[in-house]
Amino acid sequence: RALPTDNCHPAKAALLAIVQIPMWVVLSTAFRNLVYMLPHQDALAELKRLELSVGGVAWFPDLTTPDSFVIPITLGLTNLAIVEIQTMMRKGGDRTRLQRYATNFFRGFSIFMIPVAACVPSCLTLYWLTSSTYGLTQNLAVMSPRVRRLFGIPPSSTTHTHPYAHLAEQLRSRFRL
What we know:
The chain is an all-alpha fold. It has one domain. The chain is 69% helix and 0% strand. Helix 2 packs antiparallel against helix 6, helix 4 packs antiparallel against helix 5 and helix 4 packs parallel to helix 6. It is elongated and about 60 Å long. The chain starts with a helix and ends with a helix.
């Protein structure tokens, strides 16, 4: 339906994620290496690790130790919010089986990341949370007709004229408010 009229293709949508995943993996590995002083445990590595151990704020003063509660749960909820917003903003109620599977996979992955994030150093979880929060903010901003006009993003057949009102209505109906 949207493929020929809006020059859309699933591969185009996946391309951005495919490009971002290697960067996410590399940065996550770099943070892990800083915490565990890999590959060399020399004086410079010890200095970087010491900086991380005193560089936190608030309830996580040591970025080399796991935060088992606040950041992991916030990360899971942020990722889940991204999935749910994307789901609620789709026009039309008929979704393909693949779309339903993908949505449920990403919902499950968002929840699965909570215990994983509770076991890794806080600097890594904080990076993941910052990345997810940026993604959530970007998704919300790109829904705005004003932002779309500012950046020259043309409207498509799936674009809502009042996206935030539509999202609020979807939230009210989902939670029966």
